[in-house]
Amino acid sequence: MMSTNKILIAYGSRYGSTAEISEKISIILKELNIESVVLDLKKIKEKHWPSIDEFDAILVGSGIKMGRWMKEPQKLLKKNKDKIKNKEKILGLFVSCSTVLDDPVKAKNEYLDKIMDKLKFKADMFDAFGPVFDFSETSKLGYLTKKLSIAGLNDSGNIEFDPNARNDLRDWDQIRSFAEKFAELIK
Ligand SMILES: Cc1cc2nc3c(=O)[nH]c(=O)nc-3n(C[C@H](O)[C@H](O)[C@H](O)COP(=O)(O)O)c2cc1C
């Protein structure tokens, strides 16, 4: 029996997509009577990160840029890799990325399997979710990044998007189903 049902959802997000996914997972867990704490690893200094000992399970997420996780969520995983390896904590991993739109298997290989291989542990659950591409006026993407991203999406050919709007290409049913399965794991 677990002492509590407290989950840490720790994320790194450059443009906000992984942040929103994390908040949504927390809401879904709440509906299932599971308390969680959402932690922005970039905003909160490392010395103020809570210890994972305070939680029964952890979910760690990152946005992908140029094939890479953000460094903060990687740091959290590295810091706790022994506890994870010893199966002291239930662990879930997720990413927000565009590769998943073309090739979900490749997305999982590149952005999840590789990091688990590197750290020599296997998460109990892991999944790759879709991206947000914000091409609206209020986008946080710089001019050049916007241009390059639009060109990249045009090249890939089969992704429908609006070059003047915020494109939410995440599958919220997939995210819900991931959260519900994770909830099952800790019950
Ligand atoms: C400059 C830039 C580079 C990106 N590089 C990749 C990439 O290498 N692979 C990928 O699958 N997605 C890539 N993406 C898509 C992002 O992963 C996607 O926008 C994601 O939602 C970002 O998450 P975040 O807002 O939490 O940082 C890139 C996006 C941008 C803007």
Please give a structural write-up.
By secondary structure, this protein is an alpha/beta fold. Helices cover 42% and strands 19% of the residues. The chain has 2 domains: 7-131 and 169-186, 3-Layer(aba) Sandwich (Rossmann fold); 134-168. The protein has 7 helices and 7 strands, in the order βαββααβααββαβα. The strands form 2 sheets. A 5-stranded parallel beta sheet has the order 2-1-3-4-5, sandwiched between helices. Helix 1 (17-31) links the parallel strand 1 (7-12) and strand 2 (36-40). Helix 1 packs across helix 7. It binds flavin mononucleotide. Residues 13-18, 63-67, 96-99, 131-133, 141, 145, 149 line the site of flavin mononucleotide.
Percent in helix: 40-55%
Q: Mind telling me the C-alpha Rg?
A: 17 Å
Structural class: alpha/beta
> What proportion strand?
15-25%
Main beta-sheet annotation: 5 strands, parallel
Number of strands: 7
The CATH architecture of the largest domain comes to 3-Layer(aba) Sandwich
Number of helices: 7
CATH structural class of the largest domain: Alpha Beta
| Hetero compounds | flavin mononucleotide
Spell out the CATH superfamily of the largest domain. Flavodoxin domain
Question: What is the mean pLDDT?
Answer: 94
Low-confidence stretches: none
Mass-distribution shape: globular
Q: Topology as H/E string? A: EHEEHHEHHEEHEH
Order of adjacent strands in the largest pleated sheet: 2-1-3-4-5
CATH topology of the largest domain: Rossmann fold
- CA distance, first residue to last residue: 8 Å
Count of spatially separate domains: 2
